[in-house]
Amino acid sequence: MAGLPGTGKSTLSRMLAAELGGTVIDKDQVRASLFSPPDIEYSTEQDDFCMAVMLKVSGYLLRKDPVRLIFFDGRTFSRNYQLKRVIGFAEAIGDPWRILVCTCREETARRRLSDDPTHIAANRNFDLYMKITARFEQITFPKTVIDTDQPLEACVQLATAALVLHET
């Protein structure tokens, strides 16, 4: 799941996992489990560390159940190296991968971010949205873009179709 904060990655990934029997691995929950509050820094280094843990967890889960769908949530994948790392991992273990990019209008993201002040990631706000927007690298890998201003069911249908279309 890729996209800016507030674009619906968590909502869509949880719905897809529930409907398709998949698992969501959430970077923000991983960080909160690994680090006590004084040690949480929301740095790129800590994000990358959490992603490494998420990849290890996904590898473990996929060894037990090779057809399980794993949804990585909580990372914007705003840098190409972040996507390359996950794609390389998937290819190394022989697992197919898909990129679902969530988008929405800026005002929708602003509303969602302000409506969710208790989110586990304390840095998740509209300022973060604007900061990441300014440096977001174009995703050049095959992807499905989902406009989450649409009704959730329409988003789920589009995402499900993309996942089924690319099954190997």
The outline comes out as globular
User: Which runs of at least 5 residues are low in confidence (pLDDT < 50)?
Assistant: none
The oligomeric state of the chains shown is single chain
Report the strand count. 4
- Mind telling me the CATH class? Alpha Beta
Helix and strand sequence: HEHHEHEHHEH
Structural class: mainly alpha
Stated plainly, the CATH topology is called Rossmann fold
Architecture in CATH?
Answer: 3-Layer(aba) Sandwich
Write out the strand line-up for the largest beta sheet, numbering strands in chain order.
1-2
Total of helices: 7
**Main beta sheet: strand number and arrangement?**
2 strands, parallel
Helix content: 40-55%
Radius of gyration: 15 Å
Could you characterize what this model shows?
By secondary structure, the protein is mainly α. It has one domain (9-165): Rossmann fold. It contains seven helices and four strands, in the order H-E-H-H-E-H-E-H-H-E-H. The chain has helices at residues 9-20, 27-34, 44-64, 80-92, 106-114, 126-135, 152-165, and strands at residues 23-26, 70-73, 100-103, 144-147. The strands form two sheets. The protein has a two-stranded parallel sheet with strand order 1-2. Helix 1 crosses helix 7 (152-165) and helix 2 packs across helix 3. The longest helix is centred in the first third of the chain and has 21 residues, at 44-64. The radius of gyration is 15 Å and the shape is globular. The model has no long low-confidence stretch (mean pLDDT 94).
